[in-house]
Write a sequence for this structure.
């Protein structure tokens, strides 16, 4: 999986957490923008940061990790560095996340909670591929 170049992460004016606080910071950032905290069940997070003015987020973990979301029957790979832009109820321009769909690994480019039905969450990829699931499938601990 392609990784995000260190130079792409702009840390000026950022709030950054490292060490033991980094994983909690990452989940809190996601929840503060109206998304479920279990979207990124990462391991060994080294650093998590956000530039509030732009919504730019980065999360670094020790190595690539994999997770199986049982309720949605989805396998996901998380790169060692994940970046995105956060907006209310939305993660855009995601880099470093792939999901298996119909036997192929597809990059996840955007995740958003439905404005009209906040009980649904949409995962979007290139080429118009979209998958929708109940939000509770991605709560912390799922």
């Amino acid at each position: 999986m392609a990784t995000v170049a260190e130079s792409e992460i702009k840390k000026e004016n950022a709030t950054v957490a490292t060490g033991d606080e980094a994983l909690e910071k990452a989940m809190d950032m996601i929840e503060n923008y109206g998304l479920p905290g279990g979207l990124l069940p990462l391991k060994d997070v080294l650093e998590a940061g956000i530039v509030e003015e732009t919504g730019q987020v980065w999360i670094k973990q020790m190595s690539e990790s994999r997770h199986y979301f049982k309720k949605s029957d989805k396998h996901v790979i998380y790169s060692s560095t994940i970046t995105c832009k956060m907006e209310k109820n939305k993660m855009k321009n995601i880099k470093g996340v792939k999901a298996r769909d119909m036997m192929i690994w597809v990059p996840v480019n955007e995740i958003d909670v439905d404005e009209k039905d906040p009980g649904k969450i949409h995962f979007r990829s290139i080429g118009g591929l979209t998958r929708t699931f109940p939000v509770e499938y991605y709560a912390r601990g799922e």
